[in-house]
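User: I'm writing a tutorial on reading structure tokens. Could you give me a worked example: one chain, its sequence, then its tokens, then a sentence or two explaining what the tokens reveal?
Assistant: Sure. Here is the example chain.
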Amino acid sequence: MPCVPPGQIYDTWEERQAIADLVEGLVARNYQEHLKAEGFGGCELWFPPTGGRLDFFDINVGKHRCANMADYLKFHNSHVNRQAIVDQCLASSPKLMDVKVPDIISHRFGRTEFYEIKPDSPSGRRSGKDKIGWFMLLCEPGKANLPYKPGNKYKPKFQVELPNGNSLGGRYKIVIEVEWEVDGLILYRLCLVGTRRRQGEKCTALQRAAGLAAVVRVRLSEEDTRTVLEGLIPSAQSPLQQAVGRASGAGTPSPNIRDDVMYAQLLLNDWRGRHEGQLIDEDGLYGPQTDGAIIDFQQNVTGIVDGRMDVQGPAVTALQQDHLRAAFAPGMLSDSEIPRLTLHGDVIHTDWDGEGDIEGMADEITWPMLLEAMHREVRGYFRMLYGSDDIAAPGGQGDVPVGVPQTLQALDAMGVDFSVPEATLQDWLGNTEFTPYPSISQALLRLGRRLRLPVFLDVVVWNYEHTPGAASPRRVEDVNAETLKAAVVKAFETRHGIQAGTFENVLGPQ
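And here are its predicted structure tokens:
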């Protein structure tokens, strides 16, 4: 599975925000190490009202974010109007969680810089660049006349591995990856490298569990983390539909439905992989291999040896609990890896990561809210492991289109963004059967030129489909290039109020 932003893994804003809080702490700690390596002796943190410190971190600050930044800027730039900066900051967004306060500002001799930390997604980049642009405007001579520039002296490129054992019958490394991209912008993503032949949604489940376990560990001791994670395990709901294995003691045969058998085989391989056992085929067929694996597990774990896995029975329950304990192992970060800068009480103050819909988000996440989000995650966890092959065979019926994250990144680089929710667009881009988005997106990329100003992909598609005589394409070969260019021109003119006339006039320099 490629590295992906949290928005492609987590369903709820509480989970995404908790990961963002964790990453910002990791970056802040790494920035301290960077300054020390550069001969500055490490960070000198700004904690009002003491003042006198050189480095500002907007990490989990809450409702005083604008005032906190204004105090810092006033301390180092005596000419500024503190209240004017507070007012402009509060006016930068109708939502406090999205006011344009950079995550890092540093004021040192020969080094006055700022950085923003965002998920590596088109919406994350766009949000980060918006915040950088706003702060640059604030710094201009006609405004606050500040010396700060988007930073390029600190160019992080590091990974934090989340400890993990074998799981799902393979070895995995799950990491948070952080990388500087352009001046002032630092991006992050979650990565999973594994040996499982088919990755797909089953390995996404591992990433989700790993990240949330690490979030708990950041806020609690190792012992308390184990207690919390152990308390989540009973929330898990088994998707097993009917019994797998031998006939019951009363002679009732097990139905051995294909998806049930595959689920049992997956969990058995998960356990066997962590106990040096030989893996069995995950083919959905109950036979001697699967029968032997069930017996082996029961002999070693449950003590009830009947060669059968009943719905809610001891065998499947023990397998599921054993798997969750392994999946949550990434929560066991060492104390030296814990970014203590995130530990400001029991509340995570929301600092919108740019992903998902900001409406409906609360200004803070309390510990009970986070635990409830994790309980929901665990309740649905095993549904992600249930079902047929993760990815259909190439060319077969039911192909799962791949490359949606890569397509979004390539479109963003071309100057094509979107006005619909990102999750909705991802669904459209991943559906070659019912939407024209995959084919039109690829046709746009084949044009090979960056636009001088951005256009909305959804508007381009709407213009294309509403062109008289144009059919809705499902293959790249079916996209009419001239109709597509005209759709782009119309989207450009509508968005920017500029009469371009021809496609050449909407292109940027080569």
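What the tokens reveal: The first helix runs from residue 13 to 37. Residues 149 and 454 are 25 Å apart (CA to CA).
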